[in-house]
Structures are given as C-alpha cells and as structure tokens.
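note to self: dont lose this again. the chain is below, predicted strucutre after it. 407 aa total, dont forget to put it in the shared folder this time
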Amino acid sequence: MAERNSWAVSGPATGLITTEDARLAVTALMQAGVTPVAGADGIRAGVGDPGRVAAATPSPNTTVTVQPFQMFSSPRAGGHGSYVQTLDGVKVIDILGAHPASTSVARDDLIVAVQTDTFYGDPANSFVVKQLVGGVDPVPAGAVKLASVHIAANAQTVNPENITDLRPPNVVGLGGVVPVRDATQRAALSAYRGLTAYRGDRNWLEVNDGAAWRVPSVPVCTALTDITNPYQGQLVASLTDGLLYTYTGTAWVGAVATGATPHEARYELRAGQTQTYPQGVDTRVVFPTVVYSTPDVTTTDNAVFTLNRGGLWSITLSLRLSPGGGANSYEAYLAITDGGDNITKRYAHQNGFFGPATPPTMSTSTQVRLPAGATISGSAFTQAPTTRTTDSSFGGPNHITFTWLRP
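---
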C-alpha cells in the first residue's frame, strides 16, 4: 500500500483505520527515523533512569531489577509504524533462581524486551521483558537488548560490576532535544537539519545543520578535539589552560585569557640574595624567588626563561645595584635580552651615568611578539671600577615579570 488511511477517517461499522495506520499516526509525532515516514527506535526519555537493569540494593542477591520505561520499536518483517511498549513498574528478574551458575563455566545472560504480533506470524500478541540464559536461549527476532549479565562459575549473587548496559538510545517527540550518552550514540541518530541533541558526556547541546553536528554555544571543554565539527568564528572556553579559543576556519587560536589559569609570572631577587657584576661584562641576572608562575614560562636556573606559548608578550625588568665607589661617575645599563648565546640581542634597554655614591636603579620593559620556545634573560652591565653587587635591601625592586597578552 502506498497511500494509507488518514488519521482519523470515519467509515462503515468496521472502520477504515488498520493497526498499521494507527501506528503510523503515532509515528508522525515521534522523532524522525531512517525514512520520511519512520520513527526512531529507542527508549522514551523520562525521569529516573528508564529501562536500567541493576543489581539488587542495598545488598546484591540472585536478582536484578528493570526500571519502568516506555519504548518505541518498529515491527519486523516489513511492518509499518512503531509499537509503543510500556513496562509500567519495576520488574524483578531472578537471574540465578531458576538458572543457577555452573560449577565450572561462566556464562553471559541477556535481559531483553520482546514484542510478538500474530499479524506477522507470531503465535501470540505480547510484550515481555525477560532473561535469556547464555548458551541456552536463542535471541528472538526483533528482541531489544537492555543489558548483559555476566555469571561467573559458582556465582551466588549478581553484583553491579557484572551488568553491562545495552539499552538503545533515548528518543523524544518530534522536534524535541534528544539525550545521547556520547558521540557514538549521536552518530547513530537519523539526523536532519535542525535536530538537536544533548551530549551527556560533554554537558552541552549540539545541532545538526544538515551537513554536520555543530556546538552553537560557547562550550567548556578540556580538549579542543571534543568539538568534532567547528565552524569559523566559533568560541570555546578551555579548562586546560584557561583560554578562550576561536576557530579561524583551519585551526584553533587561543585568543583571551579568562583568568582560570594564570598566564603571568614574576621572579624576584630579594633581600639576602646577592649577585656580583664584574666591570665591563654583560651578566645575566638570577632571580631566585618565584612570586607566582605559569606553565607558559619555565626555567631551570632562574636566569634563562623559556616562553612556552607564542604571541604578544609584556616583559618588565627592574634592578638596583650597589653604589659604584671611586672618584668618578660611571655607566651602567640594564637590558631584556635573548636567553641564548647571543646575549647582545636586546628587546629593551636602559642605560645611565651614575655618581660614585649613587646606587644605579634601572627599569625597562617591552611588548614584543615572540614564538613558542623563545628564551629571555635580564642582563646587567656596569663600568664601575670595582665589581658591583645587587642592592637587595628592598624586597621588590629587583624583578623580572612575564605576561602573555594574546596570540
């Protein structure tokens, strides 16, 4: 039959609506299935945990329980429309009562939901949730698996770890948000443009645009690969590094620091910590005290700092030396330099001439775009006639700071 009797048309005393017509009418209100007139098969989403098979509580015994559920499933053998099947209360199935465990061999039983229909050649019309004993009972055609139950040799009870959930996906009314456990269940949906799914493993909504599943909001994730089909301009908040990322169309770029993870560091040379600066020698300054740190900056000697994130950096450097002594003024300078062998490569520099009794106090800063892996040092130079030391009488003047601003 092509054109079916419409719901609901009057007719003679016997009526026009067949059982399949009635099922098709119900299907029209359901989540779409694999054809334009088919409904999706699965357990109707609802409160509690519909259809869950669990061990007895509080103490496991020989039984399992099946939570109430309502399910939609298609007839086998070319039937049309969807059955609406209901278990309206908790069902207890004694797994080991009638079928004790073997003394030597393990088995795997199934808990299934089975619909029979005399219209399609079955001996009776019934819907039943029951146990199939592993290695003994065949799986009936069209049976819907709810769980498997592993029965070890000599088992006396069914424990929670023995039960594997095999329930079909949830289904909802047409246009409803479909709960799915993960990307695998989402991929099994008969997707159409506008279908919306709730990802239970990610706690967000995804919408199918006819080509792929998209996350339309600003999702929070630990891995950017969780966004399986990003679109240009999409924003994602990362729990891994505390950045807000944007998708360029080809790659994710960390754009804004949210504050959840620090992206700044400060190192100081404090009172009681001294360092010498020989005359006429560029000397890297060591900052022994870590005030605050970030994974974006690492160091093994507190003198050479590696930037682990590329982008625009703000770097500040401040140093106070002991007075030069002698009879004449002398030059001193401070520089933010490359942390490698080329200490003369400078990103910022301050110099001055200081009197013999004046402690040189110098600060410099820069904003510079640097690649990941770049190294940075603070270096000092003095022409004082004798070796100078750091004036660390005060706690904070001697420092170097790093702040990542943006890509």
